[in-house]
Known about the structure:
Blueprint (H helix, E strand, L loop, with lengths): L1 H22 L10 E4 L1 E17 L2 E4 L5 E6 L6 E2 L4 E6 L4 H33 L5 H29 L2 E4 L2 E4 L1 E3 L4 E6 L6 E2 L12 E4 L4 E8 H4 L7 E6 L2 E20 L2 E10 L12 E18 L4 E3 L2 E7 L5 E11 L3 E6 L6 E4 L9
Antiparallel strand pairs: 1-22, 2-13, 2-17, 3-12, 4-6, 4-11, 5-10, 6-9, 7-8, 10-12, 13-16, 14-15, 14-17, 15-16, 17-21, 18-19, 19-20, 19-22, 20-21
Helix pairs in contact: 2-3
Amino acid sequence: MIKKLILSVLALTVVALVAFFAIDGSASKGGESKTFAVSRGSIIDKAVAVGQIEPRKEIEIKSKNGGIVRQIFAEVGDVVKAGDPLFDIAPDPTPLEFAEANRQVELYQVAYDNAAREYKRFEALADKQLVSHQEFEDKKAVYDEAELRLKLSREKLALIESGKTTIADRQVSNIIHAPTAGMVLSRSVEEGDPVVPLTSYQEGTQLMTLAKMDDLIFRGNVDEIDVGKLHEGMGTDIEIGAMPQNQLTGMLARISPKAHQDQGSTLFEVEVQLDELTSKLLRAGYSATASIIINKAEDILLVPERLIHFDDSVATVEVQDTLGVITTREIECGLSDGINMEVIAGLDEGDLVVERPPREITAD
């Protein structure tokens, strides 16, 4: 009888153990539950823009005169002032252009000589009052026009031959001068390279780019999910990949009103005005990441977001007391950074929030 009773107890114990492990496999496979103490900290809700450091204005230098690069006065990295010479463009006319310019001078010389003779003859007649004042003025106008045409043709021939001439006591040449102060960022030609002039129907050869390196901005792209939260004037932290030890700050200055597509993503371009430049030289084109601060909360209660259970609009956590008893408690949540969640109400600092071990799914 006693033996049967012992066997029955053992059988019931085995059944109970099998049922327990079948219901909660974590006791043997998933490990024990963990607890996390509610602590104080800060949360920053931010949007991330990926882009680079760029000059606010970058100027392309081109020539209005075609020819050959005869001399280069500035190299990449040089700082130039407005008006400094950059390039000397030597004329490179075709034989036909040179012949036409030379023949034009000869033709206008003949016309000028004829007009000068007529003018002197009418001047003599006018002194003797043998011609009217109007006739004399007409001859004088023809003479003045012939003189101007001859001068213009000679100036054009001088520019074609040497690239230099004087017009109205002003020296004119094919030397390209800097339109503004700045640093030479790039140079696209070498001495001897041909130059296509900038005209209304062609872009012309880009010779050089200039920019003010003391006026830099961050330009990057923000995902459409975050752009609705942004507005001009927001504070921004900027990290430069090549200078991780130097973090910059700035202000969101512009948000593009139109999106663009990039590898299937819808992005909006943003510009950030830098507050101050680092003591080290920033280079145009540095890759950078801007964190645009949307909201920030400090000295708040924090709980790992993965421990919070959401059922419709109700958020709950499991809390373990000093006796080890676990209860479910409803909480009110605030900001989140994707890792931690702000707890506005329902928990106190030091409360232990339970993290259940993951359940393993086994095949039948």
